[in-house]
Amino acid sequence: MLKVAVPNKGSLSAAASEMLKEAGYAQRSDPRELALHDAANDVEFFFLRPRDIAVYVGSGQLDVGITGRDLLLDSGAPAEEVLPLGFARSTFRYAARVGTATSPADFEGKRVATSYAGLVSAHLGELGVSAEVIRLDGAVETSVRLGLADAIADVVETGTTLRQAGLEVLGEPILRSEAVLARRVGAPGNPAVDQLVRRIQGVIIARQYVLMDYDVRAELVAEAVGITPGLESPTVSPLHDKGWVAVRAMVKSAETNRVMDELWELGARGILVTGIHACRL
């Protein structure tokens, strides 16, 4: 039986369960459930703290798990990223009082507070900067104001919270994170894991693309296909009227209206867009 770790709370939890549902797996209906046996797929799901998932997976007690890339790297566990999942994206950066530092090199001999001590220690080590890294569970912005630290490293979205604390972002991002599927380093091949990965890949692609159908005059097919090349090649079918053909192609959902406008200007008609629920490519 495949054993899978799923975040039990936080920004990763709902999105991870929704992706697994779309991939055809059962998920808990009661947030207090700690485990769920999906008999139809022969999978057991364990709902765990996101920060602990890499540790369970790295120990080999669970086959795979969904967690954040930042949490995976910070854990130091012998687990590795198998597949990026495209949600819970964030940027991890340094910040300090306005005018006190311009780059991580200015942290030499100083104190940096963070909830990701392993990740930050490794990053400073790569930069050759010797600094004391202080681990806190949250609200790290306050550590500078209270004199516990000289700078911080934290997830930054809009920067509003940092500005309110009198801090400014500096240097390049330490890490761009998102939810990932993780597995123990060196784990042997497992067909059930491969199937899980294929299903999730199908969900990711289905979320990014739509199916576009349209009719176009036969002499304009080459130009139309240039607008909608599809993943490999679009399907082109003859119509009863010999002068027209029907075309079907996958199009990135974010580009749908631009593509429809271009096809209309070319002379295509009957342009229809359909969502994709799942796929295997």
Automatic annotation (TrEMBL):
What regulation of activity is recorded for this protein?
Feedback inhibited by histidine.
GO MF terms here are: ATP binding; ATP phosphoribosyltransferase activity; magnesium ion binding
What is the catalytic activity of this protein? 1-(5-phospho-beta-D-ribosyl)-ATP + diphosphate = 5-phospho-alpha-D-ribose 1-diphosphate + ATP
Q: What is this protein called?
A: ATP phosphoribosyltransferase
Going by the UniProt record, its keywords in alphabetical order are:
Amino-acid biosynthesis, ATP-binding, Cytoplasm, Glycosyltransferase, Histidine biosynthesis, Magnesium, Metal-binding, Nucleotide-binding, Transferase
Q: Which organism is it from?
A: Motilibacter peucedani
Enumerate the InterPro entries for this protein: ATP-PRT_HisG_long, ATP_PRibTrfase_cat, ATP_PRibTrfase_CS, ATP_PRibTrfase_HisG, HisG_C, N-reg_PII-like_a/b, N-reg_PII/ATP_PRibTrfase_C
Question: What does this chain do?
Answer: Catalyzes the condensation of ATP and 5-phosphoribose 1-diphosphate to form N'-(5'-phosphoribosyl)-ATP (PR-ATP). Has a crucial role in the pathway because the rate of histidine biosynthesis seems to be controlled primarily by regulation of HisG enzymatic activity.
Enzyme Commission number: 2.4.2.17
